[in-house]
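pasting for the record
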Amino acid sequence: MLRRTGLTVKMLIFTALLGAVLWMVSDNYQTRTLTHLFHEKLAERFSNEAQEHRTLFDRQIKIYSQAAKILVSSQMLHDYLQQTTWVEPSLATIHYHHRAPAWMPNHSILRQFVMPRYTLLLDSQGRVREVYNWDRTQPATELLSPSVMLLALSVNQSYLTKLNDGPYLVSSEPVLIDGEQVATLMLASPLDSQFLRDSQTLSTTRHTVALLSEESDTIIVSSDPIAAPGGMSLSALSDTHRTVGRGFFDYGSSDFVIRFASFIPLQEVNDLTRAVLDRARQQRSLVTTTFVLVFMLLIYMLTRRLRVMTERVVEFSNHMAIRHPKSDTRDELAILEDRFKTLASTIIRETEALEYQASHDPLTDLPNRKLLNERLQSALMRSEVTHKPLVLMLSDLDHFKEINDTLGHHVGDLVLQQAAERLYNTVRKTDTVARLGGDEFSILLPDANLQQATLIAEQIGRIFDEPFYVEEHELKVGISIGIAESPSHGDDVNILMQRADVAMYHAKQNGYIFAVYDPSTDTHHVSRLELLTDLRRAIEYGELEPHYQCKLDIRSGKIIGTEALLRWKHPERGMIHPDEIIPLAEQTGLIRPLTNLVLKRALQECARWREHGFELTVAVNMSAQCLRDNTLIDTLSQALEEYKLPPFCFILELTESDIMTDPIRAKNILTELNAIGVGIAVDDFGTGYSSLAYLKQLPVSEIKIDRSFVMEMLEDDNDLVIVRTIIDLAHNLGMSVVAEGVTSKTALNVLGKLGCDEAQGFFIDKPISSQTLLQRLLAKPSMAASSYKRRA
């Protein structure tokens, strides 16, 4: 029955049951929990109060000594002693005072310190002559005839002792007149209930305190003899009081050990706990009721939207022709889960295929340069730990260009496939064979040395001595191999690749099958320094010139934009490719002035075209290092303002790898650029390692399909699938698509059928100078769009 019930009804029933269960369970559980927690808090509070009681009791003990010092310094006492002559000791009797005697200061002065039970005045021989006992009680016999030890131990300090089998506090001070001791003043009080109450006068609480015997938990005396009478054990009080702060009272001047404790009435604890529980129960009732009502409302709103979402997902999956198992359930969540599971598995398969294609060469199915670099980096890191060498081989095929030009690209591709298979079958399973592009291959040999590498290179040479049989052609294809070892030749990916390339070039120049890197043959660093000097001068004097390759709107057949491509005609080296200029500029810090030069030159030419009525856009490739330039946005804004160009005329192109170098900073910079109206394009899409899940978070307006897929799509169905998938996915994310590397009318027609927006390649136009482009546009104005609006 529930299976055919809608999600809304199920959730409302569940909510009602949940509310009932919460109501029944929460009260019992939270009552126990709150009681436990509150008792812990009370225990902490009572412990602090007990510490306060101990502190006040200790203060009451120690203040006796201070009070005695103040009394002996009283001028009234000194005047009295100077005027009084006591009779002979044998005839003398102790004189008791029930009111303050003449030698005592005013009570108001004394009360701020202490009110001792007995104040005794002794003569210079230590005999008691006068006693002030304001409560008319009889002092202990040991006080009326104090021993020498009692006087010695109580002088200048508060001294705890037992007198008449009871605890007493005694403090004495000599009375000095003109440096001569004429008497002794002694303060004494029994440690009884009154003393304990007096000690707690300043306490913030009025709990019972008591002194306990050393041997057992028996009360000697308490501040409330009715509630806790002397002689009672603590166990007898456990039903009515809670004992806290029990511990020894360690006072230095004492001839017996006492323990101090505080008592909290259990009724007070129960009253406090009950009050807290009552408040919590009221709050819990309100929260539970509110939760049930709000949750029911949210469920209704959520399931209502969920039904709409389910309908759309079902419609989308049906549109995508994704098969789902039949089900009679009416539960929208179950339907949505089933559809999402199927969609997710489909997307995962397509994503895995794209990721595999992005890291593998589509022709040979070998790892590409990106995957090789990753494995090489991992191998270098592992080599640092294991201290084992590794070897990198770089090779290219001999006479491959002649085969390609003579017999065509199809035969060349078959040769590359056979070469890849021969290389793969020669090495170990743990080694990596990669195709870097064209006829270049690389082999990574982890945990191998030069001796092992040369043996493998010799074996490869013997295998490549055998002819290649391709479509009834018997072809002789040689190979040249460069070998570099880490760490002896370098411990960095780029350095190792460069030195393997130097060795390969040396082998090819000298007709060797292979060559090991030799620093003496590496002249690259010298030429690099010379090239760097020339590049710096070329930037300074503006010798670098951008050429512009047109971008065609496939629907209208009009030229709507251009891409600025850097060109440098070196006076000695001839035309130098940007692939050599850009890395050099990045490594030497020249990338910022180089970028600024190209950017301003491109915007200047774009403004020139607009003056002649051709509203074309201009795209400029940016290096990953430019994203770390804090002045990029300001420089671009100033240039747009200088040439009076609207921001949409400029498109900034970045490769996937550049974006993923620092994705967080890239997102921030691109968001700021998008905010001022500049277009953002992802160049060479499909060759990097970014995810669409991340790209959709960026303000990307355009995706450019890498030329390797476009050029091969007419002959390779896999490349055609990749192109179609990228176009569909980009459009679903609201991005326009530009196909690079369009070399034929057939390719352009296929791209149009696939829904591609723009095309770029030699079939459209080769990169030309700005002046040549303007002349062509002026000669045939109809070939260019007169207005341009970026697609959403």
